[in-house]
Structure formats: C-alpha cells, structure tokens
Amino acid sequence: MPNGKNHGLIMFVDWSGSMNTNMKGTIEQMMILVMFCKRVNIPFEVYAFSDSYMTRSEDEDGRYKNNYDSNGYLLGAKIRKYGTVALNRFNLLNLFSSRMKAKELHEAYLYMTLTSYSFANQYSYTRVDDVYFSIPERMCLGGTPLNAALYVSFSVIREFVKRNQIEVINSIFLTDGD
Hints:
- This protein is of the alpha/beta class.
- 32% of the residues lie in helices and 20% in strands.
- The chain contains three helices and six strands.
- Strands 5-2-1-6 form a four-stranded mixed beta sheet, sandwiched between helices. Strands 3-4 form a two-stranded antiparallel ribbon.
- α1 packs antiparallel against α2.
- The two termini are 35 Å apart.
C-alpha cells in the first residue's frame, strides 16, 4: 500500500474428504502463499479446519480419553454453561505461522510436501511417485465444518490483528465448499 500500512494474511484450509483429489494442489498453493508472506515479511497464520482431527487425547497416565460426547460436542467443565456457543466436532490445526523459527518453518514445509504426496498417491488411480508416504492418522481428511470455521474465524482474526498490530488483514479460505 502507498501509505505503508501493516498487512497480515490468515488462511483457512479445508481438510475434508471432498478435497481429496485437490489436496496436493491446495497444499502447494498454501505453501506458495506462506513463502511469499515470509519473503516480504507479512505476518501470517495457516489453519486446517476439519471435524476429524484429535477426537481423543492422552491423559496424564498415558491413557486415551474421548474429547467429545455422543452428540459430537466437546466435553469439559468450562464448555457447558449458559451463553456458550456449541460447535459440533470442529477443530483448527495451526499448520504454519510467521512466529515459527526458520528451522520449524523448514520442517513444516517438508512435512506438508510429504503430506501432499501422500494425498496424491492415496486418492489417485496412478501413483505420483514410486515411494509411498503415509501420514499420521490424525491428519486424515474428515468432514467440512465450513460454517463453524467461518464463525470462529472472526475471533481468530481479531486476535491475530491485535497481536501483530495489523491495519490491513486478508483472509483466504481454500475450500471446495462441500
């Protein structure tokens, strides 16, 4: 901008099964945008949204416990009180951030590249590469909680703007909308 305003970019990537044939290209597009932001020193955050990431967590004893009740709503003492908005099985996974150190960002690029090849091989009739890469179970594609992602994005964006003193914010949703 001619007036030298502070810019910021937040991306929300659809991590759902309907994106299966587009995940490699979507991940590549996401990483190009991240590299651009890093190169020109624009603060950024990238989140994957899905309903399948981390339905269970480990307690102090190393045992797994469910994070959701039978209706798909989060469990916890602070969750169920008057005035709380209940989002059914919705998760944001922070994939990239301008707060990452150079080594962390480099590792994230490598992992996301392998993830993109995994999706390309898993959901195509012909393999993209001779080598098969598997991803952690928690990174598998799920449903599309697009409405929940849109709803939560307002508070995520407000926090990002405040933390980075952003004057011009751009948000991108990489989704097929299904």
